[in-house]
Each structure stands twice: as structure tokens, then as C-alpha cells.
Amino acid sequence: xxxxxRFTVRPVLPDPLRPIGDLARNLRWSWHAETRDLFRSVDPExxxxxxxxxxxxLGSVPPARLAELAADGPFLRRLAEVAGDLQDYTxxxxxxxxxxxxxxxxxxYFSPEFGITAALPQYSGGLGIxxxxxxxxxxxxxxxxxxVGLLYRHGYFRQTLSRDGWQQEHYPVLDPNELPVVQLEExxxxxxxxALALPGxxxxxxxxxxxxxxxxxxxxxxxxxxxxxxGERGVTDRLYGGGSEHRLLQEMLLGIGGVRAxxxxxxxxxxxxxxxxxxxxxxxxxLGLERxxxxxAEGLDFDSALESVRAGTVFTTHTPVPAGIDRFDRELxxxxxxxxxxLPRIDxxxxxxxxxxxxxxGEPNLFNMAVMGLRLAQRANGVSLLHGQVSREMFSGLxxxxxxxxxxxxSVTNGVHAPTWVAPEVFRLGARxxxxxxxxxxxTVGGSDRWDAVADIPDQDIFELRRVLREQLVxxxxxxxxxxxxxxxxxxxxxxWIDGVLDPDVLTIGFARRVPSYKxxxxxxxxxxxxxxxxxxxxxxxxxxxxxxxxxxxxxGKRLVQELVRFADDPRVRHRIVFxxxxxxxxxxxxxxxxxxxxxxxxxxLEACGTSGMKAALNGCLNLSVLDGWWDEWFQPDFGWAVPxxxxxxxxxxxxxxxxAAALYDLLEQRVTPRFYERGQSGLPDRWxxxxxxxxxxxxxxxxxxxxxxxxxxxxxxxxxxxxRSTGPDAARDLAEWKGRVRAAWPGVTVDHVETSASDTLxxxxxxxxxxxxxxxxxxxxxxxxxxxxxxxxxxxxxxEDATVVPLKPVGSADQEGRWVYEGPLSLDRxxxxxxxxxxxxxxxxxxxxxxxxxxAGPSEELVEAAGLLMx
Length: 872
Prior knowledge:
CATH class of the largest domain: Alpha Beta
CATH topology of the largest domain: Rossmann fold
Largest sheet: 10 strands, mixed
Radius of gyration: 29 Å
CATH architecture of the largest domain: 3-Layer(aba) Sandwich
Shape: globular
């Protein structure tokens, strides 16, 4: 029979056990082994059945067992010790508290998804896992972050397979009362709420749930409340679900509602108000509009409020392709803003102008969330060195006249939260070498360039560790494979073969990620005969574990999954290659440590960063990857292998796949498998173990989320906080007025004449020439601009490469025609073809970049031709 109504009945803990409830509600347990061990000891069988979820565990333990634990002296002492450790962790000084005082009092970090733990399934893939790792690392470092997201009633989807291998989606309902979250309440005990105005006089209400991630609060907005109509209740139904209007409402709730939730949280708890707002991808971009509206309500005009908001905003882009960005029809956005909807005091045209693609190559009727994010943030970054370069090129239309390398988008390479992803066995090996506290500090705070202690671990210990982890993965795979086949309709009697799936002594390759076409799930199937030869090699076989979800609306991705599954179902190879459905955090935490090789073969340069290989590396797994994302930046032959690419502009996609697949097979046949199976005098694979050692000692410190968050603090958050403090109401008005004056006057800014002290176009290395430039500044003065000489080696088209920029200084005052003379040195510091040019840029103390306004003036074509501005 089916129940007509459902309740969540919470256990009543005996007084001596009250601290265990606090431990369950702080998600630090998801990366703190001692806390998980404590919960496991409550009831090992129920702990396993709960999927390692303390809230579900405590809800299932019989009162008699709770009473028994309440009288168990050793258990209570252990509970007190673990609870005391959490108290010290959440209140004591950490890395951030030892830094200079000018750091921000608080930072608000907005993301559409957060992957904290499988017990809180609010993530779909890399963006969410990265956001979760960002919060955890911030907690470990003591960074005063406030996370902001949405609480989706169905999360992302659960994945199963049909009998013929087609992906099936399931959307189980999540009851917040059964999740490790609590409702934020007003002092009178009523739920804290935020509301957004909708067209037609309606409202979108949302309550605020709080997930405590160590020291970091994560606020999650949930629209499934009685005050809403059925349509509004469904706004937070699914992660990345629904049509355009549905997604727009989700992003308005995240950005606008999220700022209101932060204000509510700070009011109720006394938490310092954020000085910096960090937008993790464009989904939360509307937060800038809400903050502009707040300042307008305090008396600032729109332009001044915009400058104040930009000063304290950081925007991180994660996509290397325009198609990956949320874009909305102009009319849809216009309908949701203005007098009859949200932010009624702000002119709708001003809202639209922030997101419109009003640049060459843009689509003028589309509102682009990433473009708005960039226009509302004074500081922006990509998520790897290569992705920063790709982003500068992709968004260069917003900064016309500047070379792509001068576009003000930097990069902070992603990292991963080691305590979450490092297997306990790996941690124990490190702790045995240097002590538990030093090992924990190395994984969280980081700061060193290398982990030298790894060099002292005996080869035998590393070899045995890798085999233990591989053996655990084999058991995990068999269990999951058996469950998957039962879901596909197989009977237990048909599944005896699963007991022979995988071998703990065979080279194991992992491939797990989302399944968009550019990640090329099926590249390994390009030549099936060669793959079969590798899988079934009599002396050097390989085995492959594959997992991944295609987006529910992506039939092309589902076909790739089906193609892989059908190959893995072949009785000839099914003991050597498996596809595991329902890839998520719980599976990943077993998969990364158990693999010897982590495979990644995207179309370069479409992988913004790709952090799965980092998690594998922290467990001693070697990477075999296309040079894309983070691997392009940090690859060394000591850490693994680079798959050669054929990414020339004219390469046919099918031919490219053929070439790169053949290169992958060659690497596996000729270099990877021989290295794994080769034995030295000790009987161990000495050269393989040495690569594992190098991966741990040299790559390990680089890939930490602690390193990443420290970079955000030092390079982005701290400068943004200083800029925020410097851009108070008066300064914001002055800056807005100055920008308006500069934009109006810029057509009159020109370079009129350039001359050097050189009498010939041939000069010797080390020569310094005198440069004299005459410029017209129109209604501007020397304090409003920088005049620069840009020089360097030039290519065949006279484009300057690896440029050096030197400021020129004004000499005297303006002449009768209002022109100014600037002078300075030009150093000929490189041999070969050498060129220079002169340019004028806006200059103001509150600009974060001289390219910020997208304005630049240089010599006219006629002047260049007449002056011959080229030394050879």
C-alpha cells in the first residue's frame, strides 16, 4: 500500500549523545576520517546501509542501541574527543587568520551546484565538485567564505541502463528534512524567507536551508514552499532542467535571491557582510544587479553603483566554448525586469545592456550570462593557464583594439580537496612517514613545492599500496556491476561471470566524466581490434573501468554511452572492460585510487581544466591525457604520458579522431604496458614505482584545492577587497563621471606624430633610442591617460610578439593646438626583426586594468606608412 502523506521522524538522542547530532550536521565528517569512524562504530551494518550518511544512520538506529551507547564510557570519551576536535577546527586560528589584516572580512561564493558529499546530491559534474572542494579548502584555511546555491528537490538525475544499454534517468524526490541541512529561522522560530517579484504581480518565494561545511556556511534556496503556485514551486526542481524561462528563474533566484539570503544570514547570525562577491560561472550573474539595486536605494545613481559593485566582484568562467554559456532571448529577460517585475527602480535597458552581445560576431538579440558576469566584475579568471588564454580570445570582442593576451582575464588553475579524494590507505602511508598532523597540513594548507618525504617510502610499500587499492576497486566494480545487471533485468543465475571481472594484478585504466561529445567517451573504440588485442594480451593485458552520465536532453551523448556499453557487454571482453552507471562522488572516491592510469582524451582545447586526473594523481595514479586543461600546464614525462593531438585548423574531425586514437593505442602498446609489467632486479616494477613517486612528490602539491584557494585569496579576493574599500559612494561617483567623460572625449584622442633618434633602420643590440611623440588628447589631460611605447620582435605581418611596454612622459604643456609632446627611451633589446608602436590608454587609480574601458588610441595607418615604425 502507498502512504497518502509522509513525515520525517527524527530520533531523540539521549543527553550524553547530543554532540553526535552536531557532528552529523557539520559536513566536515565527509572528509574527516575520525568522525566517520565514530559513526561507523555506532552500527557498522546500518552505516553501510545508509551509504555513509550520518543523518540517515541516526534515523535508523533503534532506541535501545542509542541507550546502550549513552552508557558506554569508551564511546562517550571518543565522542567527546571528536566533538572537541570539531570545536577547535571551527573556532581556532588557521592560515587565513595569520595573513595581513587587509584581507576581506568575508567573501560570498555563488555557484549553481555544489558537490560536498554523496549524502547531499546537489551536483552534476566538475563545476559542482570544484565548488564543493573550494568551500572545503576555504574551511581548512579559515577563509571566511559564505557559499550560496539552490536546493534542488530532485538534484541531478540517477542513471541506470536498459537491457540494450540505453541510459535511463530517474529523479528521486529529496526531502530536505532527511538531508544534512537545517532551515534558517527568524528569532521567532519562523522560517527565513526571500522573495522575488514576477511579472503580473506574482511573487517567487524561497526558504533558506543551511549546510555547514566545516567553518563555511552554505545557503541553499528552495522554492518548494506553500506560498508559491505550482509553477513557482517547481523552479528549484532539477539541476539544469527545464526550458529557457525555467532556467532564467533559477538564475534570478540564485543571483538576486542569493544576495538577499546572504543579507538575511548575516543579520540573523552576526556574520560579517561580504566585501567580495565571487560568481562561479555566469549562472549567478544577476547578483551584481541586486547589489546595484541596493546601492541605488541608498541614493547612488546606476553608473556609480555599477562601479562600486564591479570593484568587489570576481567572475570565474569555466567554459571554453560559446555554446556552453547560458544565453536568453532579450524579450524574455526584459519581461522579468522593470516596473512590473523584479528590480523595478532599474531601467530595463540598463539591465539588458549588461548582457547583450553588442560586439562584432555577437548575436545582438541574445542576453549572455557570461558577458554580464564579465561586465559586472572588475576581476575575472579562467581555470587553467590554457583556459585563460582561450577565454581571452573568446571574449576579446568586449575589449576591442587590444591583443588577446591583454584582455583582462587571468587564470587560477583548479585544484582538488585532498582529504576528500585521497584514499585512507594513502593518507596512512604518508602519516606513517611524517606523522598524522604534518600529513594533514600538507594536504590542506599546502604551500611547499614538493613532498620530499615520499622519496623515503620503500618501493615495496608503494607496490603493495597500489595493489591493495586495485583489489578494493575490483570488489567495488563487481558489486556495482552485479547491481546494474539486475536493474537491466538479468537473473542472479546469469551473473556468475561477474566473479571473474577484472583482475587485481592487471594494469587498470579509469575513464569517468560527463559525456558531452568533446570528451570523446568512445575514442578508445575507434579501432576495436586493436583495443581487443590490448585487453586480451597474453602477457601485458589492460582492463578499463568507464563511468559517466549524458545530459538527459543529449541523445548524442546517450548513443555514445550505449556504444560503449554494448562493447563492454561482449562476452569476449566483458571481464576486461566495464561501464558503471550512476557515476557520482561515492563511486569516484573508490575509482580514482584503484586505477593505475587515468585516461583523458578531449578535443583540445575544449577541456577548461578537468580535475579528475588530479584526484587520481593524489593517489599515485599516472595520467595518460591529451595536453589540455591542467595537464597542458603541468605535464612532465615523470608524471605520465601526453597523447599527441592533430588539432590543426584544417583537420577533418573523423580523421583527427583516427590519428589521435592511433596515437593512444601506440602509447599503450609501446610505452605504458611495458613499463607497468617490466620487473627490475627486486622483482618489482621499479620504473613504474618511480613514476608513482614523482607524481606524488612533485605533482601532488600543485593540484591541491588549498593552493587554489590561497591563489584566489592573494591574487583576486585581497585586491578586490581593497578596491571595494577604495570605491565608496563618493569615489564611485567620481569614477563613473570620469569614465563618462573619457568615453565622450575619446574620439578626439589621437597619436599625431612619432619620431626617433635613429637615422637608419639597422641598429645594434643594446642601443637605446630617444622617442618623441605628439598626441592630441581632446578634452582630456595627461592625468587621464597613459602614453606608452610597445616594442618587441615582430612576425612577417609586423605583429609585435612578446611585447615590452614602457610609459612615456609628457614634456612641457600643450601647444596652441592643444597637442602634447611625450618622450621616452626605446631599448633595442632583441636581435632580428624588431618593431614598436605607440598607444594611448585611459588611466585612473581605481582601474584594475588599463584595458578595463576597452579604449585604446594608436597611430593611424597613414602615420605608420609615413614613419616606417619598424626597425630591422
